[in-house]
Every structure is written in C-alpha cells, then in structure tokens.
Amino acid sequence: MKIISAVLGFFARIAVYFGGIFNKGDAAANPAGKGTGNEARPRRRLVDGVDADRFTRLCVILVIGFVSMLGAVLVTASLRSGSHEIPVEEQEHDERPSGSFTVTLGGNVMPTQDMLDSAFADEKYDFHNGMSELSEVLSGDMTIVGLCGQINAYGENKKIGGLDAGKNYPMALASAFSELGVNYVFGANQHALANGYDGMCATISNLHVKSLGIIGMTDRSPDKLNTHIVRLNGVSVGVAGFNCIEGGDYASLTTEQRGYIANVSKEALADSAATGISRLKKSGAEFVVVCVNWGGLGSFTETEFMKETAKNIAESGADVIVGYGPCVTLNAEVIEYKNGDIQKECYVFYSLGCIYGNNVYPGQPKIMALDGRENLKPEQKAALENEKKLIKSSKSAMARSMTVSLNVSRSADGTVSVTQASYNPVFMIRNTGQGDENSHMKYISVPCAKYVSAEERPAIFSDDNQWEACKSAFRAISSIADRTGGRLVLNDLEHTGEDSDVSDGKI
Question: What pTM does this model have?
C-alpha cells in the first residue's frame, strides 16, 4: 500500500503541475501594460480551456484505474503461471489480535458409485444436497480434508466412477470443496494413483483450478514436496503430508515419478516426517501440521505403530498430527514433551473417519468365501464369525466421523500454540427415504449436534432408526473426546435443532 500511495502521490503532483499549465488565467501571469504593445501573448496550450482542479481529479482517477487494472492483471497472471504450491499469503483479521487463527480438520471424502449416482441430476453432478451442511463444521482459516481417489483424471468428466468403481470423481467434487470452505486437500494415500500418474497430475491441476492446495503430492518439482508454508494472520504455518500404505499403481511408477508423491515405508515414516518438519522450520514455519495416511480399512483402534510414530513426530516439532486411512474415527490425545527447556504440546488425531462416503468393511475375501460351506474347521468358523461381526459393526462405525477446529494464538513470549480445541460429531445418512423420488437426495452428511436435541424427529431422517443412529454417532464421538480429559470440547452449534438446509429435491 505504501508503494501504491507513493505512485499515486507522484502522479498527482504531475497532474497538479500540468493543471497549472492548462489554467485558463495563465496569461495574467505576465501582466505587461495593456495597450502598450507589450501585452502578454496567449501561451500555446495542449488543451485550451481546461480547469486545473477538474484536470487534477481526472488524472488521479485515471491513475487509480490504471493501478487497479495492473493489479488485476498481475493477480490473473500469477494464477495462470502454473505454480502448484500452496500459496504464501497474508490473511489479516481485524477482529482478532495478530497471531490468532483457526485450523479445521476433516476426515476422508470417498463417495461410492451409488453416491455419485445420487449426486447426478439434470445431466450434471452437484453435491450441494449431500454436503452443504458440512459448511457449518468446516469453516476455518486453514481447512484440510482427505481425498481417496482422483478428480476428473481423464478430463471432460470422462470415465467417472466411485470408490468402488474407478475412484475417478467428477469435477463438481472439487467445486464442492471450495464452496464448503475447504482450502487444502490431503491426497497421499493408496488411491492417489487409481488412474495412473497422469491421473494424479490431472487431479492436482483440477484442485488448483478451484484454488485448493494439495498436500503430500506435487506435479511440479519433487524439491517442493512437503515444503508448503501459508501465512495466517501474521503466523507462518507449515504443512506436510506422508503416506506409508502402499497399493494401487505404485509399482508401475518410474524412479522419477516416485519423487512426486510422499510415499514412504512404515519404518521410514517418523524419520521422513522429522526431515520435513526440520525443512519447514528452517523456512520460517512457527506452527506445523502433519497429515499421515498410516492405517488401512478395518482398523477400529489405533495401533502401537501409530502411537509410537506419533510420539516421534511430535518430538520432532509437530504441533498437530492428523491421521487418515482407517475410515473410522479413532482416539485423540495431547502429547506433552520438552523441547530444550520449553514445554510443548502436540494434538494427535489418529483418524477423523470419513465425512462423506458409504464404505463398509468388506471382510477378507478368502474368509468370507467360507460362508455357507459345510464341515468348516473350528478355526475357520471362528474367523468367519469374527469377520461377520466386523462387517456389522463397520456399518455404523463408518457412518460416523468428526471435524476438529483448533484455535491457535501467539502468546506474549512469542510462542505459537493451540489455545482451544473443539470437535463436531458428523453422521452420514445413507438413505433419507427420498431415494425413489429424488435419488440425489439419498445420501446426506450432517452435523449431529444440529439434530440430536430436537423434540421431534427432524424431517431429514426417514425414520426413527436413522435419527437414533445419528444420536448414537453423537455419543460415540463424544466418548472419544472425553478421553482427552477435557482438552477437546464440543463445538456449540448455534443452529441446533433447526431445519435442514438441504433443498426440496431441486438443485
């Protein structure tokens, strides 16, 4: 702004100077005796009869317009320059003291084919009905969600398929992210290469078109992988992401291509994260968020590997660790440790679940193939029954998730840390009862707190069983938060009990 003011001032002085030249009364500046033969001869003017004040104002307006247009051109050029790194931008908030901002975390987004079908109406995909209510629990200065799969991998919305049918989601999903307030997507997982390396690059480009940053992958330079820093209200926040679960098409990657996705072995995860954190700190990061995909489908509790790795990553300087992979909500904790003489804390969320999806634990194919067969051995019967129990429990476990909002502030001594952490239980309604008339109204993800205290069953639920399932999800997620000893509190939604914002079947 100082530079712009100086430029405007310079042009204004020029305008005043020329305004004086163009002044109508400049002939009087040489008052030689009239009628003596030495009268002042009219000065030659570029423009005759121009008033100085009016001309000055005109020049200032023209200068402002020119500077504004130049700024717009530069912004447009930067957006089209091909830069695919998370932008470093200052986001000042007048209503809060410098150094305060909010980080919001959401679980995975992984729609199945029937969910894509339900989002298709009037020859286009639109996720408003299914995801719009998530905007109430995804607001933040930095909002991160996970993505399992690719977006518009082949261009022009070709070969679209759900998690169970190609993992290539329509461009409308990227639009939905942007509309919900999401600005960063963690995509490094076993589904990142579902449609090949080119599909991954297309996904990154499609996310950037919607001004979404990508974590854990890059299509630009391996040297820039996991060195993302964004400036939030005066604080430099570093973000890194890693995947240690292999699958998909990783084996087909060339040595060069492997450098474009942060894929590491389980044994190397802690050390790789430590290296990434160190790089971020050297680049000026004062607060660090680390995303990790470290568990597979069917993990209903955090493993010893997750706990030990989280401890190591925390002691390497991470302030927040958010896990992805299990697709169910796991525990959260606050790890306390010392960095020299300074007492530090790291908030760990082992898994936030799936905020938009219809996945269920499929069971081990070899074991499930035993179903219906006779003369099974005792150990086979036990394994089969165990798998059936897992499948049954997963139907409810995978329908609930949570989002987390972390209020972060700079203290008087200059350190940056979490001052408050809140959570929102989320429930995935798999059948609103409106599927026959409006298939795109079938799957809706809702904040539980908005509905559990209603005196009567809200219209968004097809029956009492759905409503009870939402209440059950609320209790299950709340019990997870309770284990943090009060460090994670329920976010009190202002609109609890109000009617749904979902439309009446029209997109």
Answer: 0.77
